[in-house]
Queue: 3 jobs
Job 1
Amino acid sequence: MNNKIAVVTGANGGLGTFVTQALLDAGATVVGVSKDIRQSDFSSAAFTALPADLLTAAGATSMVASVVARFGRIDVLAHTVGGFAGGKSIAETDDATFQRMFDLNLNSTFYLLRAAIPALRRAGNGRIIAIGSRAALEPGAGVGAYSASKAAMVSLIRTVALENKDAGLTANVILPGTIDTPANRKAMPNADVSKWVQPATIASLIAWLAGEAGKDVNGAVIPVYGSDV
């Protein structure tokens, strides 16, 4: 991926850290985006930290404009930002929780895609890879707002794939099971982590989809469930 410009959202998160490093290892120039990203988070000279708030249209537009102004283009967009809320039935879910799930998982994705697609189309063979959730296809009790927001996100990514195939732009979404991150271990201290998905596995898949070998994969919804199938 030499000479490729990749943007990773949530670049210093539990999954984003692995994705950023995998793309750096593949030879890409990586712009890491999050609210609190720092240049010191990665040692590579090919890494650039770009603090940004992607929960607003203005924040997403400004971030994309900054990347294009500095590097001239965007070749890869790896979107790992999201949020989770659960524990209540639909009948018990309050408005704020439902809206927050859609803000974090759907609206932020929409703002980002709308801002970045023109630059990705100009790249000629741009790649979008987004992180969804197993819950998008297999909703469970107590996670209705989260599942619905992730299902809507999947629909958005597949629509982007259809709308931009003429430009050689691909858009795919990965649906992980529970990812083995520090945050998930803290939230579920008694879980059997041996069944969880390793973040490095997802990062390797993203790097493959972003590279030349992944050019024929478009509009795919890819399950990555670990041993918990």
Job 2
Amino acid sequence: MEKPSLNTAKAGAMRFNTDSSQMEIYDGNQWTGILATSPQLHTGGTRAVLAGGYSPGAVNTMDFFNVDITGDAVDFGNLTTSQYYAAGFSSRAFGFVAGSSSSSNKIERWVFASTGNATDYSDLSQSRSEAAAMSNSTRGVIAGGGRSDIEYITMSSTATGVNFGNLTHGNNIRYCNGCGNSTRGIIYDGVLSPNTATNVIEYVTISTLGNASDFGDETGGQGDGPFSCSNATRSVRAGGGFPSGSTTIDFIEIATLGNSTDFGDLTVSRYSGEGVASPTRAVFAGGAAHPSYYNNIDYVQFATKANAVDFGNLTDGRNYLSGASNGHGGL
């Protein structure tokens, strides 16, 4: 018989469950099974889905591609409604978009391993527009979006979002973007209310609750629509800055604190695209430089610092799109 522990488990603690014969990890709230799984088993490689966007006007388009190779995106299905600038995040099996440009509290979900339409899944506790999101294998965290607070959902549950904490700024933050690894979520702030661009980077510990803390500053291209992604060690951020955008790509080491450092340049100057990742590759899709909407997809290798290389094209040009992959750094 298992005897109770004298101490409360800390996030990241591991145990062997003799009842289920399975290794488990404590995520800060509960013990959850450690699954022997990978994007190769699910989808033959890391699959990215890019959902919604503006071109001009909101669209319900969903595209997908294999991050590990190059080529044009292919139709995946449709969102339940046309929308743009929702916050995208994912587990190994499911992708999610939360909120939208219309300040919605809706959360939609799709299955990575099959193509098809997204379905209505659950709700945020607050309506959000242009929010940032990040996730580990069990929890999705959504920050800002016309607000200064943070909430989370457990991705295996349809329960409504729960308060997580607050961002460092008291002002409402919009046009932001997020990513992270299994421990830390990174938030690239975009615009503070009413309309002040910022280059601040914040972070949270995904498995706990609490306010965000200052991480450092971006090198440039800040403001409307930075887009980012990460593997387990490094976050790469690109573009941003209405109306002409930027070619800037910079990076941070997630386990440290400090300002971002120059990485290279995008193939095309733009803002409000989206970043998706595999363990080795960062891919940047879509975006705009007013009045043009781009279908460009670029990529870089996380381990090296260099200019982006052409990957392929989306099915149509659009910005303010949301994305997620089943092989990002939080998994």
Job 3
Amino acid sequence: MSSNSRAPGRPFDPDVQAGLLRATQDLLIKEGFERLTVDAVAKRCTASKATIYRRWPSKVALVVAAASALFPVPEVPDTGDLREDLLASARAYMNEDGRSQAVLASLLTAARHDPALRTATRDALGSPFSELFEHVLTRAVSHGLIEKGIDIDIISEVFPAIAFHSAAALGLPIDESLVLRVIDGILLPALRVK
């Protein structure tokens, strides 16, 4: 097959895909995961179920893609200053868009009772953001900024856990105040920065 060849059928229209993701987000907010159906997403977009299933193999994949569209993962910060890198990692969670928070809350609520959704959500939304902290902390250990033997795995989960609890369980925004309280009041003291 030449490099100019493509799979049979019409190419994906990015506007259609964006509309499907937006409709899925709307339905997650309005109906919740359990009552959201692929039929309802298709109807809202005047698309066929086949159009959706060509892009996403399941309802879980569709919903996770819709949520992921609201939470792009930034590059791992490398400012040369550990505190600034931790602040930048935490600020990646800040989102003043109430829509994003409502979608995340709906998803996390449903994920408690659905193992496939829980795994997909963790892989798409949880792990990439937790890895920001893990990379920053691992680099700090290798540069001698923090002691070896600090439990990087557990410390890299602290801010993500607080952020998800704040957004999903409490319905509170992840703002600059929370970022500063956690980084300066919890993480840096726990790291015993040299």
